[in-house]
Amino acid sequence: MNKIVRFLFSMSFMGIIVILLALSMAVATFVENRNGTTASQALIYQSWWFELGIMLAFVNILANIIRMKLYKLKKLPIFLFHCAFLVIILGAALTRYVGKEGIMHIREGESTGAYLSAETFFYVKAESGSGSLEKYQKVYLSPASSREVRMKLSLGENRIRIRSVNYVEGGQLQKGGQMESMGGNHPDVAQVKVSINNSSEEVMVRGIQRSGFMQNEFEISGIKLTLAFGSRPMELPFKLTLNDFQLDRYPGSNSPSSFASEVTLVDTKNQVTKPYRIFMNNILTHRGYRFYQSSYDMDEQGTVLSVNHDGLGTSVTYTGYFLMIVFIILAFFAPGSRFKRLLKESRKGAVVSAVAILLLMVSNLSLSAQNYPKAPDAREAREFGKIWVLGSEGRIKPVSSLSQEMVRKVFGENSAAGMTAEQLSLSMLIEPDKWANIPMIEVKNSTLVNTINVNGKRASYNDFFREGRYVMAAMVNEAYVKKPNQRNGLDKSVIKIDEALNIVYMGLTGQLLQIFPDPIDPKAKWHVPANAPAGLSQQDSLMIHASFATYLDAVRTGDLAQALLLRKGIQNFQSKYGSAIIPAQGKARLEVLYNKTLIFERLTIFYALIGLLFLIVQIWSLFKVVKWHGQVSKIFGFLLFGGWLLHTFGLGMRWYISGHAPMSNGYESMIFVAWGTLLAGLLVVRRSMLPLALTGVLAALALLVAHMSWMNPQITPLVPVLKSVWLTIHVAIIMTSYSFLGLGALIGLIAMILFVSKTKKNQALVSGHIRHLTRLNQIVLIAGLYLITIGCFLGAIWANQSWGRYWGWDPKETWCLITILVYSFVTHMHHIKGFDTDFSFNFGALMGFGAVLMTYFGVNYFLGGMHSYAGGDAPAMPVGVYVALIVLVALVYIAYFNELRFQPKKKSDV
Question: What is the largest CA-CA distance in the chain?
Fold first, then answer.
């Protein structure tokens, strides 16, 4: 018995719990992707065994705090860290069992004192001559969890049992009593077996989850039953009246910039009447209830508010977050912390290492030589690029940015035909007929090549039209009708080419250039050249109708003085009517500079070159001591530091141009990861030059990914929920943690290579390198774990401020938690017998990074969720990924068996 208790309270058992919980949550994200959120909740997150796992983890942490005497003053940081987890788990339990949340819908001029629960309930009301009763059961109904309903009632002498046997989304009863999914707006159907005393009958109950009850009435064995499922009505101790709903959009766009609800709170019991404005990240709080702006009606005459009543659970959870922040500070600076102790140990030996680098040669396919129109004057094209234009997404930006976006979409590059993006855009407007016959749209699919009948890899705009007929019309319609997950390779190619064709058409005709603000309402959609609306003055109408065409004629004939006057006239028109919303002219110049310098693309090459050369120096010094090693390493270090400063400047430019932190989409997060990665190397450079060399290569790889074809470097406005200071803090810390964890994976990779290279002759030397490398890796991973933990929970605060719930098991936050669990296991492996070796730790550091990759790429591009960056179909997995994985597995396999040769043999083996 004592052995069992000791095992249950051991670190080994904790390791088992952590891995099982992580695997369960990983499976849940795929269940959700396949079967929906309700199924993942029913089968995993809300299951008894999942709760048992969390409870066992809670008890194990508490027992180990006592067993290892972590409560002593000298162990205060680690004590706070583990206490923080206990408090967070306790707060989560309070939220789960005591907290309430739901949705309140109000139309303008109406009042309500009730809301609908976020959870789904099954409702039963039974009536007979002996009386009536009603009962609710919280359920998670889905086709994968159709047997959720289990209810027992007693009405007089009658014993009523109700259980669900089937569930169909959008179901409809067919002949023979079978149900079939109809989809669309049809209600869901639960097939329920009702047993009253000794008789049973199956009935079909209709309902819509996350909506009010639909009453289904039946009479069985003389008892009238009312059955329903959906959101349960919940009463409030006060009322809210919606006075006005307000929606602001980005200029000339349907994209919402912000939306708000002007409400009046009326609490007759406490004699409180107060007006309040609820908008994203601005919450109404009263008597423990919190109201968040969630959505609105399509006619913009009603609002949807999220309701939360979880003061106790939130307070306890926030206390846990606070303890964790205190721990992070103490862990970095307190002399008794393990992090500080490892820093001291790392100074005792110099870490030198080697790495084998697989170079990925990236070749850009340029356009074949064509008879291109003459390039417009370069200086005039640059000035043309400074004219303001309203983009389709609602952002006012220089024509330079629009031109670069167009060229990138059509040609896949930032420039083409020997012209800058501005020159090419201007040339297409000046000579559209010539450009319509130049092959510039890439066609890869063999079926499309035959359909269009082109010889090369690119087709011209006119190649897609025969006798005025669009040859891909039927294919385009067929592709768009299909659901995204049902589209094949041909469909995706058709959609991509159709998009490029539309962009080329608008580029040739000037339809992209919304450069004229509306003189009556500049916040309305701006006008393209030669398309003046009715009701304008003759002068304004003439400006819109004729000025730009005259400007193009002047550029074509080389009359640059006339072109200057006309361009200034257009810019003055913009200033006259759009000054209230147009950014400062200095911002236009800075954005043009940003477009011209291509900082991040050029840093990709710079980081790769310097990082690889730096690694070669490290490899050389491993096998041969050279005098110049230190000086050359310093030179490379200063070069990478200079690149990092330039990188910082580029991020600052993008931040200023966009008006928000550059962390809101996939491209921005990758360039921030590259920045944080190099920062991680710079922070530990005093202890070893190796991490800096590695982070140079890793930063180059991050930027390379950022500039792949499926990433979008376009600067876009923020959706309302992202307009929060929590976005900047949360994403910055998370991305920095990825950098440290990525560095740890690279150090682990080098350690594997050293394990492979170990021989009897160099055993002592290589083992020393591995030992020092492992110490450094422990520092890096602990720092990464601290950062991702605090970043994850700061993200929970952001979610609570924005949506009214700090945890919702969204795939992104779930995989973030999985990553925390994985690295918690890795950093505690030295406490587990059999895993307390340098090989085990570096293996964990290397393989654990798979959780980070899944958190970032897997969720953002292959799973769903509110955090997904994917704007359409997920990119195909490159073949190189599978090759790299095979090579990695082979390397670890060889390293493991080579290391076994040097392990001390047991007496029984001698």
Answer: 103
Residue 434 sits at φ, ψ, to 5 deg, of -70, -45
Task: Phi first, then psi: give them for residue 10, nearest 5 degrees.
Answer: -90, 165
Query: Contact 641/682 with Cβ under 8 angstroms?
Result: yes
Give the torsion sign (CA, 866, 868, 872, 873).
negative
Q: What is the pLDDT of residues 96-105, one digit of tens each?
A: 898 899 999 9
Average pLDDT along the chain: 82
The C-alpha atoms of residue 120 and residue 211 are separated, in whole angstroms, by: 9
Mean pLDDT by 10 residues, the chain (910 residues): 79 91 93 85 91 92 86 78 88 90 92 93 89 91 85 88 89 51 68 89 89 89 91 93 85 66 93 90 88 87 91 88 77 61 53 34 41 86 91 83 87 82 91 90 84 83 86 82 66 84 87 88 81 82 89 92 92 88 84 88 90 78 68 89 94 86 76 85 78 83 73 64 63 80 88 88 82 86 88 82 78 91 92 88 93 82 52 56 87 91 59
Select from 392, 414, 479 the least CA-distant residue to 709. 414
Beta partners for 398?
388
| Radius of gyration, alpha carbons of the chain | 32
Share of the chain above pLDDT 90, in %: 27
Residue 565 burial (CB count, 10 A)? 14
H or E element, residue 171: strand 171-173
Q: Would you call 248 helix, strand, or coil by DSSP?
A: strand
The total number of residues shown for the chain amounts to 910
Closest CA to 252 of 386, 392, 405, 402: 392
242 three-class SS: strand
Quote the crossing angle between the two packed helices 599-623 and 690-706, to the nearest 10°: 150
Q: Give CA separation, 171 vs 16, 141, 177, 193, 471, in Å.
A: 42, 13, 12, 17, 40
How far is Cα 95 from Cα 311, in angstroms, rounded to an integer?
9
Question: Tell me: the pLDDT tens digits for 541-567?
Answer: 888 888 999 999 999 999 999 999 999
Locate 138 and state its tokens: 């919280």
CA distance 24 to 467: 59
Query: Is there a contact between 472 and 494 (Cβ–Cβ < 8 Å)?
Result: yes
Distance CA 86, CA 788 (A): 18
Q: Give just the sign of the alpha carbon dihedral 134, 135, 141, 147.
A: negative
